[in-house]
Amino acid sequence: MQPTLLILAAGMASRYGSMKQIQGFGPSGETIMDYSIYDAIRAGFTKVVFIIRKDFADDFKHIFEPKLKGKVAVDYVYQDLHSFTGDYTVPAERTKPWGTAHAVLCAKDAIKEPFAVINADDFYGRDAFEKAYGFLTGAVSEKLYCIIGYELAKTLSDNGTVSRGVCEVDASGNLISIAERTKIYQDGNKITYEEGDKKFEVPFDSQVSMNFWGFDHSVFAYTEKYFHAFLKAQGTNPKAEFFIPIIGDQFIKEKGNIKVIPTSAQWFGVTYKEDAPGVQASLNALIDKGAYPKSLWK
User: Mean pLDDT for the chain?
Assistant: First the structure.
């Protein structure tokens, strides 16, 4: 059974204002997402499921369906505040989506096979998709999931601080915990994060999560169970979000292991608008080296 790629794109409309304004970084107007899909296809993935907002579905399909037709199977899932809430009454003042783990849960009926989860607007690199594919076709099970781990130093921005999930990993390469660190930046020859008015050093080679996960389809039932518990405990908090690492932490405590698979790939993305020229330059350098064609889908 070939694995599926699940792309979290429901938040893109609010960030870009309109789906028609998705920023092109490649020579032929390719988005960062295009490069992820291209890498996934050549790694062996045969289906892509997009999680999007229903009100932007037509624009989204107009952009992606023509170029992906005949290259990979495509499906769409809509993240909605009322999805999988059961008999829970969503507070009228709640407008913010429930978070990334809820977005994954929304794909429950569309995916019956092992799958990878990525963000729409992060560039992960070919090596990451090949390693994820290898894990999803050879090792994944109800008791073993994975996360692609990036070297912290390869995920920083020159234009400001970033937030990263810093992974604690045991001697066997299994995830012990993810600690969300905010305000991380390079400070001379070291990497620092700030908490309150204190500064702490983080090793350069720390493994961090960029939200690239590998799951068995059994994760859906597990996530649904904990989503209901989340709603009961925090549903009335308008800012509370149900994130994938919450599920990961609970899974490690209760059920199995999450393998941290290191990648040598250079991550890049647009945390700040000033990052955009650097992303474009990084893609052009990869194209010049022959890693990607000048036009992905021609």
Answer: 92
